[in-house]
Structures are given as C-alpha cells and as structure tokens.
Request: fold
Amino acid sequence: MELRNVKTFIKVAELDSFSNAGRSLGYAQSTVTLQMKQLEEEMGVPLFERKGRKIRLSQKGYEFLVYANELVKCEAEAIQSISHEDKPAGELQIGILESLSVSEYTNMFKEYMKAYPQVILIVKIATTLELMEMLEKGMLDIIILLDRKVFNSNWEVPFERKEKIVFFCSPQHPMADRQVTLRELSKEKFLLTEKGCNYRQVFEEILAEQRLEVKYGLDIGSTNTIIDYVKDELGISLLPEFNLKRDLQKHAISEILVNDCNIVLYIQVILNRHRWVSPSMKAFLSIFSNYF
Reply:
C-alpha cells in the first residue's frame, strides 16, 4: 500500500471530490482516480459511493479513514524519531468553535505562527459534534471546545476552565444593566447563533423546562455580526463573556442580569490519549497555557 495513495484518499475524503483533491495536491484528476482505484483493489472493498459526478465515503471508507490518518501520523512520528528531531515541524491541525476563533485566542495562533514558522498551522472551524468526530477519526490533532463537560475514555483534557454566558443588549434598551426574569426576557426579539450551537441549545433547554419560547429575529453563525446587530438595537442576544469583554468595557453594549437563568460552560482542550503527541502539539499546548 503506497502512502501517497493513502494521503490522496484523506484529501478526497475531506473535500468529497476527486477533482478538488487533485487541485489541492497538484495532481491531475485522472491520477487521483487511478490512485483510488488501486487503493480499493488493495482493500478489496469500495471505499466510495458514486452517484453521477458526486462521491462520498462508503461505510468501509469511513472505517478506513481512521486507519489512514493513523498511517500518516505514524510516518511523521517515525521520521522525527529516527532523525532525533524534536523541533516542531510539519502540519498541526487544530479544530475550534467559531465563537472561540474570534476571541483573544486568535492572538495565540499568531504567537504560535511567529514562534514556529516551519509549522503549517491548519485551523478548522466547526460545531462541537463535528470537531469531536474529526478528532475520533484522526483528522485533527487538538480540538478546543466551549460546551458542557464532555467525556470520552480515549481523550485527554489538559486544560479546562469555566466560562460564563452573558445576555446582552444595546445601552439604550430598557433592560440594559437591569435584573429581569427569564419570562420577561423571553418576550424580547433574539438574535442567535445557528441552531445546534452549544449555548443556544442549553438556553433552549432552560426555556423548555419553564414552558417558554422566544421570538427569533436572526439565526446566523457569525458572533461578530450578532454583536453589531445588537449594538444597532435590532434585538438582544447571549454569547460567551470573552466575546463581549471589550464592548462591555467600552459601554458599547450592556449586560442583562437574568435572575433565574445562569448558563456556565467549559472551555476544554482535548486530544486523543492514544496518539503520539508531536513536538508541534507540545509547543502549541505550551503557548495555550499562557492564555489560561
């Protein structure tokens, strides 16, 4: 089994396209097609489901993807081990939530890139479930979540910290800096992150427990857009406190104090305890510790 073919398979799985994978790797589409055919012949099973021009991984393809990522990781580990090279190098794949990616942690990525220019830093933004799935499949080295505490016997959590979720509005809003009940709050128009977002999900569960509903004025995956729209008095919202600190200090927005709704989640840095921790990963965790 050629490792080159395995690497191509991983790229095809990521992009769901032979042609896009070819462009990304600098191969002709015919080369990618041939490599995947060779791989399927070696495995003795179809790794892809083909419907017209569209492709996606078969069940066996998903199973092989886990091993494919392990093979590539093992290659990198062997090269660094044999060469006695303990300096960070190669690729480092980090998965992070959108709300974290537009916070103070962006400075952490800049610091890492300046300190280790020889490392190719790949940052993927996705939901909690998507990030956990990619970590399980070996597609990511480290994930950074903001959620309720998660547990998996295969995972190691070197960093964990509580984070408050804050309700906020424009300074001109009648609820600015006031104490209100959840029932009062539920009558307002909400601008929220997309459905499936962890703190939105917790909020909706609390509403359901009290048999309450809210009116949605916006459903969007951009934290910064929500903050801007709240400033323009288009509605109220809730976001992690770290996303709001600067605007709260400038009095560009105001906190709403909700007596009967306290949402606390956890920033969690997670890696797979059964996988090799590369020098690039160790260096990243060291820099991350300065932000915790």
